[in-house]
TrEMBL record:
Belongs to the diaminopimelate epimerase family. It catalyses: (2S,6S)-2,6-diaminopimelate = meso-2,6-diaminopimelate. InterPro entries: DAP_epimerase_AS (IPR018510), DAP_epimerase_DapF (IPR001653). The keyword DNA repair does not apply. Homodimer. GO terms for molecular function: diaminopimelate epimerase activity. It comes from the Bacteria. The record marks 161, 210 as: Could be important to modulate the pK values of the two catalytic cysteine residues. Keywords: Amino-acid biosynthesis, Cytoplasm, Isomerase, Lysine biosynthesis. This is Diaminopimelate epimerase. GO terms for biological process: lysine biosynthetic process via diaminopimelate. Pathway: Amino-acid biosynthesis; L-lysine biosynthesis via DAP pathway; DL-2,6-diaminopimelate from LL-2,6-diaminopimelate: step 1/1. It comes from Rhodocyclus tenuis.
Length: 276
């Protein structure tokens, strides 16, 4: 089966984007893993599938698959690439689109400067919403990671995040703790593990060990979760500049029950066709 694709990235978090509106696609987890494989396939952190919406109030449906082949709820950098893709491919001329995801609607908008801002929805913190097994609903909670007790803030941006503060992201235990946190028994659907260094009240540095993909150069939902966690802990004020290894995102959040806005670039790298 031949599949046309576009390779894109948002700050180095890279995607294979597939047009499921004009080509009929029903890919198996094995085929998805093959697309994501950096040696035997195209290579990416996530595969993004653009489809016709299933509800009347949306323009498109956006499906996200991690490099391990699992379908997930949300991807922030992918949302910006999604808008760039549907506009470049002539699927829409609208600058603002309403996009159906597994966890509701998001509203990305391409600005005149080419940057894209996404209304990522309202963050949730209740343990059940993550899901996170915990008897208490606290802003900061202890988690045993191997022999270490780590203080985390749990945030759902549609997908699950556990954010911890570190003194320096360059020496943070991302490699040693990432997989342990991702697969921790208290996160029944696994989790994205964020390591955040506060620079000042409007700036952080961030690394994220992503569920189903390992450490990526940037994570959009991870940036939203980190900024929101820092604001709730009284360490940050909106807007927050989030510096990742792939570049910078701007995150705005006005507080409880308000949506998070994420702004940043989206880049097309090349297009092609692969025989699966
Ligand atoms: N790279 C993403 C998040 C992709 C999904 C994540 N790995 C998960 O499993 O929830 C982003 O930019 O948000």
């Amino acid at each position: 089966m031949k599949v046309r694709f576009t390779k894109m990235h948002g700050l180095g978090n890279d995607f294979v984007v597939l047009d499921g509106v004009r080509q009929s696609l029903a890919l198996t987890p094995d085929q998805l893993r093959q697309l994501a494989d950096r040696r035997f396939g195209i290579g990416c952190d996530q595969i993004l599938l653009v489809e016709a919406p299933t509800r009347p109030d949306a323009d498109f449906r956006y499906r996200i698959f991690n490099a391990d082949g699992g379908e997930v709820e949300q991807c922030g950098n992918g949302a910006r690439c999604f808008v760039r893709f549907v506009r470049e491919q002539g699927l829409t001329a609208q600058r603002e689109i309403v996009v159906e995801t597994m966890k509701g609607l998001i509203r990305p908008r391409e600005g005149e400067d080419g940057n894209i801002t996404v209304d990522m929805g309202v963050p949730r913190f209740a343990p059940d919403a993550i899901p996170f097994i915990s008897p208490v609903d606290a802003v900061v909670q202890p988690l045993m990671v191997g022999d270490d007790e780590v203080m985390i803030s749990v945030v759902s941006m549609g997908n699950p995040h556990a954010v911890q503060l570190v003194a320096d992201v360059d020496t943070a235990p991302v490699a040693s703790q990432g997989l342990l946190i991702e697969n921790h028994l208290r996160f029944p659907q696994r989790v994205n593990a964020g390591f955040m260094q506060v620079v000042d009240r409007h700036a952080v540095r961030l690394r994220v060990f992503e569920r189903g993909a390992g450490e990526t150069l940037a994570c959009g939902t991870g940036a939203c979760a980190a900024a929101v966690a820092g604001i709730r802990r009284g360490l940050l004020d909106s807007p927050v500049r989030v510096a990742t290894r792939g570049g910078e995102l701007s995150i705005e959040w006005a507080g409880d029950e308000q949506p998070v806005f994420m702004s940043g670039p989206a880049t097309t790298v090349f297009t092609g066709e692969i025989d699966l």
